[in-house]
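Project standup — Tuesday

K.O.: blocked on the structure for the chain from last sprint. Re-posting the sequence here as requested.
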Amino acid sequence: MKKIMLLSLLFVPVTMMAQQDKDASACEESLFEKVTKIEKKQDNFHFLLNMNNSFDYNQADGEFQNAKFNMRQLRIEAKGNINDTFSFRWRQRLNRNNTPAPDGIDNMPSSSIDVAGIGVNVSDKFSMFLGKQCAAYGGMEFDLNPIEIYEYSDMVDYMSNFLTGANFQFQLAPNHQLQLQVLDSRSASMSDMYGEGYAQSKVPLVYTVNWNGSFGGVFNTRWSYSLMSQAKGHQSHYIALGNELNLNKFNAFFDVMYMREGIDREGIVSDIVGYNKLGGHQNDAEYLSFVMKAQYRFNPKWNFFVKGMLENEGFSKANGAIEKGKYRTALGYLAGLEYYPLKNSNLHFFLTYVGRHYSYTDKAKAYGVDDFSTNRISLGYIWQLPMF
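H.V.: unblocked you, prediction finished:
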């Protein structure tokens, strides 16, 4: 059945590769143009430096922990169009390990290379991207450049989002796109990903169907369903529904994400019951996440935002001494002010507050865990700087 699914996807017509994380610097003059005073008139090559740097004040349960400078994100990126048919893209995180994962199935670093591949534009309605890439999961926040995220939900933060494979796209209408994607389901070894005791799947792939829609630019959708082969006899199902409202200066999105896993890939609830300490992940994990963000650009140079996250984490089935049900509720609450000092530039300075609270059920507390909270105040900048 899996082989039939794969073959059917390989023969689907394709369209232009959607930008998985939006290019914030598209209208900004590059550093090369500023220095040389020469206007770059071609789209064959772009070189970008992605930065998120801040000074952080951290608390845990009301107690001061530390205050430090933190380069949270540092990525370099090259992309361009060779001609009307072929394009390329490469993005790498400079503050991550660049060594290929031992026994990884794609011979790629699991944490430093985000994107490395080529795009093929067959026609105005069909195209594909081949190589390492971002999974075409739904959700509005998932589509943003990672440098723009002050705090991810647990579900997205613990996911393996950059995998190797192929993405096929069909432009159903000018404002509606269908993506069909097939990727390796992991880049690390079985033992690193899941622990011991699992037999490797002969076809370790993840299949994703993604719909990106826009209704007059006012209401936008990014919905997806994914089926992942984790190990022999174990699969993961993931649904993500992203919904966005755009009203000129006001913007808001609401993401709903649900995951049921044969093996606890994220490891969050396995940690609660102590399985990760024993070298393995627990079976039948279940995660439900709600993320909402609203922002108001009350001045061309100033933007205010608030964000909330609610997540329920637990097990979908009982397994021996492990009871079925919810084990933890994770809350996140953010507020921030952003200042854009330059016209036609995505450079912005920010002052943000990030609060998290983790509440455990009685089933979880039987394993020795307890509720806790964290707080962070950050002052810093974000810039996707076009170098060339």
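K.O.: great, moving the ticket to review. The radius of gyration is 21 Å. The first helix runs from residue 2 to 10.
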